[in-house]
Design a protein that fits this description.
By secondary structure, the chain is α/β, with parallel strands linked by helices. It contains twelve helices and 18 strands.
C-alpha cells in the first residue's frame, strides 16, 4: 500500500507532464506509406499511429526543402521572420554564407527545459555546423547524429549491407564527440532513441527523432530488402526497404513507451520534412502534383499524424489545414508552458471541439510564391502565374482556374504581398535545381 507520506508527496507533485516524441521522416512522399495509400510498402507501425490517433489529410510543412522546414517546426514561426529561407549546400558553403538557425531564435527544448523536461535530438540536424549552432548549444541535453544535410546509411563495415561504401559522407557525433559508427544508420538512431526513453522514464522528455530515412542515397540492409522482395522495380524496392527500416524504428520507439507504461502520457507526432523527390524514380507523392523543391502540393503537403490516447481523437481523419509550425504551440500548451505568440496554433482544441486552425497559409522561396486560403491555392513563379487551383475538387492541381476567377487571384496575391512584406529578406543566397512540372521547366530555388 502507498504510505500517507508518499501519497501526499504524489499529490503535491501534481499530474505528470506529457512527454513529446516528434518522428520526422526525411523526403517522404504523400503516397509512400500505407495509411496514405501505398499498396506495396508495409508500414504497420506508422499505420497503427494513424488508427490510434488523428490522420491529417491537409498537413503542410513550411518549406519544400529540408533546413527551412526544420527551422519552422522547431521555432513555431515562419522561417522567413528570421531569414532562413533557403537550404545550405556543402559544409564549406555553410561557412561562406553564414548559414544556420539564428542564435536569437528560441526552439522547442529551450522552452521546455524550464518546465523540467529533458531532451534529445537523434538523427539529422541540418541547422548549422559552426560553433554555436550544435544541437546541445540550442537547448538539447543530448545529441546523437550528424550535423549536415545528408549522409550514408552504412559503411564498408556494416554487416548485411546490400552495397558497400567507404566512410560516411558526414561524421557521426555523440554529444560533442565524433564517434565511429558502423551500424545501419536508421537502426542506430532507433537504438539511441529507445535508450533515451529508458533513461528518462521518470522525467518528462522531448525526443526529436529525425533520421535521414528515406532520403537518398538508396541504401538498405539485406534483411529489409528481403521483406519487400516482391517489388520488381529496383529503386522503388530499395526505397521500400528503407521505409520498412524506418517503420521498424517507429515500432521500437512506440514499443518502448508501451513497455514503460508511458503511452497515455506521450504525444507522438509523425510527419515528413517535405515531399519526395520523384526524380529518383523511387518514391511517390501519390495523388499530388509536383515534388520536393516545388510549391505544388507534392512539395509541401506531407504525411502527418498525431497520437495521444485520451487527448487526441483516435481513428479520426482531419481535413482542415494544419502546418508543422503548430507543433511547438501545441506542445507548450499541453505542458502548461507559456510561450510568446507564434505563427502556429495549439491544435488540441480544434481536434476535439472543431473549428479551423488556419484561414490562410503562405509560402515563399525566392521566385516561388504560394498561398492557400480555404479551398483555393495560388502558385506563381517570378512573373509567371502557374495556376489557381480548387484543392477541394482537384487536390492533384490538374485544372488551372485562374482565367475564370480573376477576383480570387487578385485577393490571394494581395494577401500574399501583405504577408511577405512583414517577413525578412533571405539571409543567404539560394542554390538551384531544375524541375519540370506540368511541362514547365523551372529553376526552383533551394
Amino acid at each position: 500500500m502507498m504510505t500517507r507520506r508518499v501519497f501526499l508527496s504524489a499529490l503535491a507533485a501534481g499530474p505528470r507532464k506529457p512527454n513529446f516524441v516528434i518522428l520526422l521522416a526525411d523526403d517522404m512522399g504523400y503516397g509512400d506509406i500505407g495509411c496514405y495509400g501505398s499498396a506495396d510498402v508495409p508500414t504497420p507501425h506508422i499505420d497503427a499511429l494513424a488508427r490510434g490517433g488523428t490522420r491529417f489529410t491537409d498537413g503542410y510543412v513550411s518549406c519544400a526543402v529540408c533546413s527551412p522546414s526544420r527551422a519552422a517546426l522547431l521555432t513555431g514561426r515562419y522561417q522567413h521572420r528570421f531569414g532562413h529561407e533557403f537550404n545550405s549546400g556543402s559544409v564549406e558553403r555553410e561557412a561562406e554564407i553564414g548559414f544556420g538557425l539564428p542564435k536569437g531564435e528560441k526552439i522547442a527544448p529551450e522552452y521546455l527545459k524550464a518546465a523540467g523536461y529533458r531532451s534529445m535530438a537523434v538523427g539529422k540536424w541540418h541547422l548549422g555546423v559552426r560553433a554555436g549552432f550544435h544541437p546541445m548549444e540550442r537547448g538539447f541535453d543530448e545529441f546523437f547524429g550528424f550535423l549536415t544535410g545528408g549522409n550514408d546509411f552504412l559503411t564498408a563495415r556494416t554487416p548485411g549491407a546490400t552495397a558497400k561504401v567507404g566512410e560516411r559522407d558526414a561524421p557521426i557525433w555523440r554529444g560533442r564527440k565524433e564517434v565511429v559508427e558502423d551500424r545501419y544508420l536508421t537502426d542506430a538512431f532507433a537504438d539511441e532513441a529507445v535508450e533515451f526513453i529508458d533513461r528518462n522514464r521518470s522525467h518528462p522528455f522531448l525526443l526529436y527523432f529525425a533520421p535521414n530515412a528515406i532520403h537518398t542515397p538508396l541504401q538498405a540492409l539485406e534483411k529489409y530488402v528481403d521483406r519487400v522482395a516482391g517489388i520488381q522495380e529496383r529503386k522503388h524496392r530499395m526505397l521500400a526497404a528503407m521505409t520498412v527500416a524506418l517503420d521498424d524504428a517507429v515500432g521500437r520507439v512506440v514499443g518502448k513507451l508501451k513497455e514503460l507504461g508511458l503511452e497515455r502520457d506521450t504525444m507522438i507526432v509523425f510527419l515528413s520534412d517535405n515531399g519526395c523527390p520523384e526524380e529518383t524514380g523511387a518514391g511517390t507523392n501519390g495523388p499530388l502534383n509536383g515534388e520536393k523543391a516545388t510549391y505544388y502540393e507534392g512539395g509541401i503537403r506531407v504525411p502527418f499524424l498525431m497520437r495521444w490516447p485520451g487527448k487526441v481523437p483516435a481513428g479520426k481523419t482531419y481535413r482542415e489545414m494544419v502546418v508543422s509550425r503548430d507543433l511547438l504551440p501545441t506542445m507548450l500548451a499541453a505542458a502548461g508552458v507559456k510561450g510568446p505568440a507564434m505563427d502556429g496554433v495549439d491544435l488540441l482544441p480544434y481536434l476535439n471541439k472543431g473549428g479551423r486552425p488556419h484561414e490562410v497559409l503562405f509560402w515563399r522561396a525566392g521566385k516561388a510564391r504560394a498561398v492557400r486560403k480555404g479551398k483555393w491555392k495560388l502558385l506563381e513563379f517570378g512573373e509567371e502565374l502557374l495556376g489557381l487551383y480548387d484543392l477541394a475538387a482537384d487536390m492533384g492541381e490538374t485544372r488551372d482556374l485562374s482565367g475564370a476567377n480573376p477576383g480570387v487571384v487578385k485577393e490571394l496575391r494581395e494577401a500574399w504581398a501583405g504577408w511577405s512584406g512583414e517577413m525578412k529578406p533571405a539571409a543567404w543566397p539560394p542554390r538551384y535545381r531544375e524541375v519540370t512540372v506540368n511541362g514547365k521547366r523551372l529553376n526552383w530555388e533551394l
